[in-house]
Here is the input.
Amino acid sequence: MLRVYALSERKVVELQEQIGPIMVFVAPNEEERRRLISEFKIDEHTLTSSLDPDELARLEFEPDHAAIIYKRPKNYYSEQGLAFRVASSGIFLFKERLIVVQPEDINLFDGKHFNRISTLRETLLKLIYRSLLHFLEHLKIINSISEEVEHQINTSMENSFLINLFALEKSLVYYLNALNTNGVLLERLRNNAVKMEFNQDDQEYLDDLIVENSQCYRQAEIYSNILASLMDARASIVGNNLNVLMKRLNIITIGIMVPTFVVSAFSMNIKIPLSTHPYAFWIIMGMAVVSVAGFMVFWRSGKR
Here is the structure.
């Protein structure tokens, strides 16, 4: 799917054309891939890498354009459980054209930071900034979910909550790797600012991006360390809750066995005391109650 945009009055506006200054290819089909390779001379391997979620962020220079692959969070859907994943996107910067290749359909140009934009290079940097904001939003969600799951674990004996924590921790590992490679990409962009033809404002914005990405990485690292350190503690809590339940069940079982023994002893099919006594039933029931009371006194004294 192809969407075409242009810069008008310092805003990104969509066009009903097949070619324009900003072209966004969403999960390009075979025909669109051939067009990108033949018409715009995009390297086939680089094009494939821009749609590969396992590809690292990087910057490459071709004769007539710069190829940038950066990482961003995938859209989250409830069917995924608590698994947050990352995706790759490609940006190909030409002299008078910007081509974006992404695996899923998202609105790239929403948000107030796209309200004042004048050049393609500024658009490129703000696309990377948008992915950084997306990471920050997901980190807030992950932190909120982890706090809720931790609270549930404190009173739970099920493994499902531990599995949810593990899924969140695994997601943070993916995010840390993505933010780290994005940081390397931003450093390369700064080192090649002249080759990328960034003006002074672009370079200052790029410096801010590097700082923001570093802070986002540290925040994800803190969340990851907290979850990792709590996993063993939470597993111990689940085990302790199970031990408490088993203790209660054992007490109930023993409490039932004591009067059962008394009653069964007097129900044997042989001559036993009280077999002819008119109040034998009530005497035996009284002995059963006394045995339970005696067990409870013994158990409570053992707890002190």
Q: What stands out?
A: The longest helix spans residues 200-265.
